[in-house]
Amino acid sequence: MKVLHIELGKHLYGGAKQVTFIMQGLQDDFAVENILLATRGSVIAEEMKQRGFRVIEITAKGDLDIGLLWRIKKVIKQVQADIVHVHSRRGADVWGGLAAKLAGVPAVISRRVDNPESRWVTKHKYGLYQKVITISDGIRDVLISQGASEEQVECVRSSVAKDATSECNAEAFKERFNLPQNALVIGVVAQLIERKGHAYLLQVLPELRKEFPDIKVLFFGKGKYQGNLEQKIDALGLQETVQFTGFCDDMPALFGCIDLLVHPALMEGLGVSLLQASQQAVPIVASAVGGIPEAVEDGHNGLLVAPGDSRALQKAITHLLEDNSLRIAMGENGKQLMRNKFSVEQMVKGNYQIYVEVLG
Q1: Is 194 exposed, middle or buried (0-12, 13-18, 19+ CB in 10 A)?
Q2: What is the 3-state secondary structure (H, E, C) of 9-73?
Q3: In Å, what is the CA distance from 301 to each residue of 149, 275, 283?
Q4: Which DSSP helix (H) or strand (E) runs through 246?
Q5: Longest dimension (CA), the chain
Q6: Which residues form the Glycosyltransferase subfamily 4-like N-terminal domain (predicted)?
Q7: Has residue 301 been placed in a domain?
Q8: Is the dihedral of CA 118, 225, 260, 346 positive or negative?
Q9: Which residues are CB-contacts of 300 (< 8 A; sequence separation ≥ 6)?
Q10: Which residue from 327, 313, 331, 320 is spatially nearest to 197, judged by alpha carbons?
């Protein structure tokens, strides 16, 4: 079986990282031949070339780049793929599906976000694909509510690398981020975009700091919303409490040094950072939206609150920060949940079975 994977994201964030897991697992476990079609100069292109995979790079300018249709079709014909798997949006979701259809090759698409689309879009865009693979049941429910058929949409959950667990080097961690030895560290691991909800945490930090004067918050990630967040931090006098770290390539190794992960997102397909945190035994406070309740079981490996409810967020954070034994227990529960529900092997097998089903 020869699979052409299309991932046009420039960075190796959560979704793109899942593509590397899938390609490696398909090769190792099922002897599938994998080819990656990526944006020229992207991080995932370099990563997969270093691993020995065949990578084809093209120019991709987004949804309005109609030339993508012909560039993708040319590659599909060139590599003689048995099936096309579109992993990203950035124009690939429409032009990739059309290209596969024109090339006469069956295609599937992964959907990682839970924002609803119109019935017209659902019908015509996803009608290009034999299967739509969602990374959570929450996303699957959204698609079906917009008119997609239950037979077309299948859930295969994202995963975390099985070898990602590492011990925290607390001294090196605190030195790297200039933290005092007694710091109580909250991490927010997400792109700096408005829907990730960073602002709701900032709203309640002044009150939290009164009760927990040693609290420090690290915003891991990059994004266009950073300027807005910096203005809020200045207005609230939180310059000594909140730190922007940028994107950290070694994030899996850093999770174990965080006391609590907070993810107050307004929308979320699943949240790979939540899986990584649980794998490292970090308890979580998150919004009950999208696929998050599948990754964070309320009262088991974390606490869930209503999206946009700052007071509920403050209450949940307070509850966990003041009870160290509860944080430890929820952390251990999270490790077990990851082993049982979110393994790489399960994700790879799930995708492979869909390919087999589509190819008959």
Answers
A1: middle
A2: CCCCCHHHHHHHHHHHHHHHHHCCEEEEEEECCCHHHHHHHHCCCEEEEECCCCCCCCHHHHHHH
A3: 33, 11, 6
A4: strand 242-246
A5: 63
A6: 52-156
A7: yes
A8: positive
A9: 330, 333, 334, 337
A10: 313
Is residue 61 within 8 Å of 28, Cβ to Cβ? no
From the list 89, 80, 95, 87, the residue with the least C-alpha distance to 23 is: 87
Pairing of strands 83-86, 54-58: unpaired
Q: Within this chain, do residues 89 and 225 fall inside the same structural domain, yes or no? A: no
pTM of the complete model: 0.79
Instruction: Write the DSSP string, 76-108.
Output: HHHHT-SEEEE---TTIIIIIHHHHHHHT--EE
Quick one: residue 72, left, alpha or beta (phi over 0 = left, psi -120 to 50 = alpha)?
alpha
Q: At what angle do helices 324-341 and 310-321 cross, to 10 degrees?
A: 100
What is the edge-to-edge ordering of all strands in the sheet holding 284-287?
242-246, 215-220, 184-189, 260-263, 284-287, 302-305
Do 138 and 212 fall within a single domain?
no
CB-count burial class (<10 Å; 0-12, 13-18, 19+) for 149: exposed
pLDDT per 10-residue tile (average), the chain, 360 residues: 95 86 96 97 96 96 90 97 93 94 97 88 93 94 93 92 71 94 96 96 97 97 95 97 93 90 94 91 96 95 97 98 96 92 92 97
> How open is the CA angle 87-90-94, to the nearest 5 degrees?
75
Residue type, 2: K
315/190 Cα distance (integer angstroms):
22
Helix (H) or strand (E) segment spanning residue 272: helix 272-279
- Residues spanned by the domain of 133: 2-159+343-359
- 112, 91 Cβ separation under 8 angstroms: no
Quick check: 107 and 86 in contact, CB under 8 A? Answer: yes
